[in-house]
Amino acid sequence: MALKEIKILPDKILREKSVPVEKVNNEIRKLMDDMLQTMYAAPGIGLAAIQIGIPKRVVVMDLSKDKEKKDPFYFVNPEIVWKSENLVSYEEGCLSIPNQFAEIDRPEKCHVKFLDYFGKQQLIKADGLFSTCIQHEIDHLNGILFIDYLSKLKKNMIIKKLSKQKKELERIIV
Ligand code: ZN
Description:
Layout: H1 26-41, E1 46-48, E2 58-61, E3 73-83, E4 87-94, E5 97-107, E6 109-115, E7 121-127, H2 128-141, H3 152-173
Antiparallel strand pairs: 1-2, 2-3, 3-6, 4-5, 6-7
Zinc ion binds at residues 94-96, 136, 140.
């Protein structure tokens, strides 16, 4: 396993649409292992492959509160096949948009079809935090970020802030 660098906004790769995985082989499993390790180290509760610069439809998640008892989930080619009309609101953040948070409404429940770590077809009925998190990650696979649900003004403020942070960081390195 290897730690990968997480891509940060305004990195344009975050806007790329990821492509489906043809076969869950050892290469994809290695990618999932690396993603999980990178997510735990960040730390975060979800990570899409595009966030480490790989435009493949792969997501890892772990919502367990107890760090001793890990409960990883692996999703290859996840697809929402049903979502509830009822919405729920969570304050969301993103490893690619550091230190920025906003309340976002999303369907409270959803059903997700995906291939697991071994390439087996699965269907999961998600609700609450799990539902919000998998929707946030599937958005990443389509180049969508949580700030896209905000007003233009709020969204531009966040992008400006992050662009400035990036410049300052570069200044220090130089
Ligand atoms: Zn994110």
